[in-house]
Amino acid sequence: MPLRFAATLAQRRFDVRFELAAGETLAVLGPNGAGKSTLLALLAGLLTPTWGRAELDGAVLFDVGERGSVLTEPRERGISLLAQEALLFPHLSALENVAFGPRSRGVHRVSARATALAWLDRVGVPELAGRRPAQLSGGQAQRVALARALAADPALLLLDEPLAALDVGVAPAMRLLLRDVLRERTAVIVTHDPLDAFLLADRVLVLEDGRIVESGATAEVLTRPVTAFGARLAGLNLVPGRRTRAGFTGRNGLEVPLADAVPVGAVPVGASMALAVRPAAVGVSLSARAAPESGQGPHSGADPDSEFGPGSASHSASHSTSDSARLAATIDDVEHRGDVVRVHAAGLAADVAPADVVALGLVPGLPVVLTMRHSDVVVYPTPLPDQDADPDGR
Amino acid sequence: MELTAARLPRWIVAIAVLGGLFVVLPLVAMALRVDWPQFIPLVTSESARSALLLSLRTSLTATALCVLFGVPMALVLARTAFRGQRVLRSLVLLPLVLPPVVGGIALLYTFGRRGLLGGTLEALGIEIAFSTTAVVLSQAFVALPFLVLSLEGALRTVGTRYEAVGATLGASRWTVLRRITVPLVLPALISGAVLSFARALGEFGATLTFAGSLQGTTRTLPLEIYLQRETDPDAAVALSLILVVVAIAVVGGAHRVRPIGGSGPPGTVARPVRSTKDAR
């Protein structure tokens, strides 16, 4: 492991440890104030931990303990930082900015300029070499800043929300460039955007209140979240629950048989598990009480006229009890979201076409039945101890 | 501008005009008293020339001393935190508000023959009081706060973010200082130095107290003007006009540098934004 990190910062209630393999990119996600920037500042040497030890390629970055402390100066760490703002030195040209790293390491002026020009070319803006930062757009400045960070030949590249300050129109091209340059590079990227994690990172770390609440391979974390925040990032419904004799029973009463399309090895009965399902895969139909004229019970077969959800027309007939899970619930909230309406009920979100919302008269307080096909849900054991996963203590 | 003036009550504008006249009128009155036909001979007399040259020499030396000591002082005040820093800052800025004659007495009791360091210096064969060195010390004493104040403000405005970036790029502390910090605050450093020079050039009270008034050695231009006022008012007026011209040039120059080095968001601090069209 070229990067090993463990640090505590008492005054910020920060306590994080992780390892990162060579060439891997780690995305650090989390709400504001979770400690993402603290993590980067500790790595870059701009903050000192109260306790901890970090190594990069065998060299100690910091080692603070009871016996005393070793702190490597930021300039000797071989770590470059690309922040939200480009922070180009305003008194130097783009080329001089990029050449700053090599020059500071004693490279001769001429070859430093050649290196800088090569990096400007690599990030696609060689024509801006002579410009001053004041003459660059936000996207151009961020490209130059990336070139400057890479030209210092860092063993580890830190990126602090590098796309957050860019125009919506410029961000995608910059994201592709980052994907390109991060491919073989050891990097830590702090981001708000799960898309960044998906496209740029091999692994994901989710921080909350200065602690790691989720970590693992990007695909794993973003398809099988174990926290509400992780689920929100991944755009998934998360239903905590446990293994029962029949299968999985969610805390909201949702039942899914495990034998059916949900292969989960030997999870003991009573173990805590979670279910994830996309809001678009959750259908909403009127319950018998709300629609007595249809003459249906909540557990009878689906009626094509009363069951809605994106694509529900094509497979509503197959939403029978044998391959679908059904849950009686009361609508808590109805939220308009662009081209769909998100219906909240029993802790689940369901995306429904606006026309169907009107046809069914979906309003808060209305009793409905939520349906989802077994093949659309993922059920998995949750690694966290039960008391952490269940703040209510139920 | 017209819009702003139009929105103000007229009596405010009237008072402002009166205040402006109060500053400008004396200068005009003095300029009217100048004996123009005799102007050149008056300002090039033996005593005037030696006073002018002495003033320039000592003021430039004092300015150099201010830069030499003021830059590290401003850096320490702006970039470090320690106990008693606020008290120290107040003490450093004290000469700004202290009557110069008090400063002169303080210097006399430090470097004078019977002063705090006088004995030591005398043993080394150095005598400062009533020498040209004393003139330079007096000027540096009163001018130093101008440079420290202006530079410290600029350093705080620029902040440490660029310096942190420089450090992560592998630059040593000295390289960061030389290639990032100083260039970023250069406009403020220049304007601070110019203000210090102007203050040094006009120094009177501390010089007279600590250095005396020996022609060619310690009699700077302000002292010369004060003496001439008794014997040859025309010469005094002519020399005064020279100092006024220098002052106008200095204020104009410092004012021109100021907006760039002074306040404003970081990033526009060091350079004027030449073209906002290119941005975005």
UniProtKB/TrEMBL annotation, chain A:
Keyword ATP-binding: yes
Gene3D superfamilies membership: P-loop containing nucleotide triphosphate hydrolases
Low complexity bias spans: 312-325
PROSITE patterns the UniProt entry points to: ABC_TRANSPORTER_1 (PS00211), ABC_TRANSPORTER_2 (PS50893)
Every ABC transporter domain range: 3-234
Region (Disordered): 289-325
Keywords: ATP-binding, Nucleotide-binding, Transport
GO MF, any single term: ATP hydrolysis activity
Name recorded for this polypeptide: ABC transporter ATP-binding protein
Species in which this protein is naturally found: Arthrobacter echini
